[in-house]
Design brief:
This protein is about 70% helix and about 5% strand. α5 crosses α6. It starts with 5 loop residues before the first helix and ends with a helix. α20 links the parallel β4 and β5. It has about 550 residues and is mainly alpha-helical.
């Protein structure tokens, strides 16, 4: 029996190189997705050395698309979309239209067909979910108003792309003219039938199956049930209704998202979803011809300009037209100045359906890599402009009210920090809150509360809070690495201060203790302690 089959070789080479290149990208403070794409380029046919089996990689990528779309559906929130619908829906649709128009214009200059230009423009119009969410999380603005607008905008883009994936085969089959109408009508009829089936049958059957499995008490069976639902619905949608794997998987996730078990389902399937998503990005990288950079530099520059400048400028103007602040407009523009997974799916499908040439696919892939590399720089520029536009936070020299001796410094005003602040203020304590964002909901308006906007990892912020005069520091942020740095700097600045930190696990407790924390609190331990105390109550 041979030990190196093409399937095993493709999986091993893909995952190993994806890890190495992904780790390097992370070290360079770039999204690991860039590393995964580079791993695909390394094992692709356009570079020397080992060449993975492209056909097997494409089949593995199909599984990646199914699980990727299942994850998108699982995290689809109608409530979040409705909260920002007045700007997200029209804004996203107009921005998509602008990007498609620019894509058609560039395609016309390059001599491609109108259908090819349409697909090319669609691929350039949609931002990467992975890149956008990570950028918002790293900057702690995911739960702010501008973060919610960006996510809602992205949801609308994703829904539009799901519809596009359904219609592309119909467009390719119809060719054009009078034959196109009946083909699209038939496709939409199949989609409607599938959606109706999922809403009538799937909406009842899927949650029932999961609840039955949960009552069995087997975590392994629950995980298997979720995967069977995702893959089974996607495959059934394609075989029985003639719609794409992507749409079937998306609806399976969306139906499951309504169940109370959705969060557990997401957590249980995350490792496998991540693994196949990595293989998807590797397979996309294998398709990329690096020679497009030298052979078509002007076309590539125009493609990147559409992604980074064109559609971002459109988004900026749209947000301003809806009377939102300049900071919000800049954040949305930077968030959308890149493309990713849906762009790859559209470009690959468009090429397979012979709607776009290979050069268009290469331009999309190269544009995605370059735009993702530029995205952190754009966010840095936005942050710099935002600091200039917004009134400066009070400094040690111009703070009107000097924080009194013996006050409490609280870092973070999220779910934990807001509760801590409320109780401390109720008890009559004087509290100085350090929060990274101005637009966090529910910031206290209290005579004993002082608010400082900035990053507590910076020594200047701790100086502003007059840490040397404080009696207690509460670090309530969930990010362990940043919290450790804050604890270390605080202990160095005030050896006598008591430091209490929020920890996620035993490793963080040990880390914070080494940095100088007096007490680290793990949520799970406190829950267990409260349960035990209640259970052992007498009487």
């Amino acid at each position: 029996m041979p030990h190196a089959t093409p399937l095993i070789a493709t999986i091993v080479a893909g995952l190993t190189l994806a890890f190495l290149f992904g780790a390097l990208a992370h070290r360079l403070r770039l999204p690991p997705l860039v590393g995964y794409l580079m791993a695909g380029v390394a094992v692709g046919p356009f570079t020397p050395g080992f060449v993975a089996d492209q056909s097997l990689a494409n089949e593995l990528a199909e599984l990646g698309v199914i699980l990727l779309m299942f994850g998108v559906g699982l995290h689809f929130s109608v409530r979040d979309l409705m909260s920002v619908r007045k700007i997200a829906i029209p804004g996203a649709l107009v921005q998509i239209a602008v990007a498609v128009a620019m894509g058609i214009g560039l395609a016309a200059l390059l001599g491609w067909s109108l259908a090819g230009g349409f697909v090319f423009g669609l691929a350039l119009s949609v931002a990467s979910t992975v890149v956008l969410l990570r950028a918002l999380q790293e900057r702690k603005i995911l739960d702010t108003d501008r973060g919610k607008i960006a996510v809602g905008w992205l949801i609308v883009e994703d829904l539009a792309m799901v519809l596009a994936l359904v219609l592309l085969p119909a467009i390719a089959q119809g060719g054009g003219g009078s034959a196109l109408g009946p083909v699209i009508a038939l496709t939409l009829g199949k989609v409607i039938a599938f959606v109706a089936f999922m809403l009538i049958v799937g909406r009842r059957l899927i949650p029932w199956v999961l609840h039955a499995v949960v009552h069995s008490g087997s975590r392994e069976l629950f995980r298997l049930a979720v995967l069977a639902i995702a893959l089974g619905v996607a495959f059934g949608a394609a075989m029985l209704f003639g719609v794409s794997f992507a749409l079937g998987a998306f609806f399976a996730g969306m139906i499951l998202a309504e169940s109370p078990l959705s969060q557990r389902a997401a957590n249980e399937t995350l490792p496998l979803r991540d693994a196949f998503a990595v293989l998807f990005f590797v397979s996309v990288g294998m398709l990329f011809n690096p020679h497009v950079v030298t052979e078509q530099p002007m076309a590539l520059a125009a493609t990147v300009a559409i992604i980074v400048v064109g559609k971002s400028l459109a988004a900026w103007l749209i947000v301003l037209a809806f009377r939102h602040s300049g900071t919000t407009a800049l954040t949305i523009a930077a968030s959308l100045a890149q493309i990713g997974e849906f762009s790859f799916i559209l470009a690959t499908m468009g090429f397979e359906l012979e709607l776009i040439p290979a050069m268009a696919r290469d331009l999309v892939l190269a544009g995605a890599i370059i735009s993702i590399l530029l995205n952190p720089l754009l966010f840095s520029i936005v942050a710099r402009i935002g600091r200039k536009q917004l009134p400066a936070a009070p400094t040690a020299d111009d703070t009107p009210v000097k924080a009194p001796r013996g006050h409490v410094v609280l870092v973070g005003f999220g779910r934990v920090g807001s509760r801590v602040a409320a109780k401390l203020l109720e008890a009559g304590e004087r509290v100085t809150i350090i929060e990274a964002e101005r637009d966090v909901a529910g910031l206290p308006d209290h005579p004993n509360a002082q608010l400082l906007i900035g990053n507590a990892c910076e020594a200047e912020q701790l100086d502003q809070a007059r840490l040397g005069e404080a009696r207690l520091l509460c670090v309530a942020i969930p990010e362990g690495f940043e919290a450790g740095r804050i604890v270390e700097q605080a202990r160095r600045a005030n050896p006598a201060i008591r430091i209490v930190a929020r920890a996620n696990d035993d490793a963080e407790v040990e880390h914070f203790a080494r940095m100088g924390a007096d007490l680290s609190i793990i949520g799970e331990r406190e829950i267990a302690r409260t349960m035990i105390e209640d259970a052992l109550k007498k009487g």
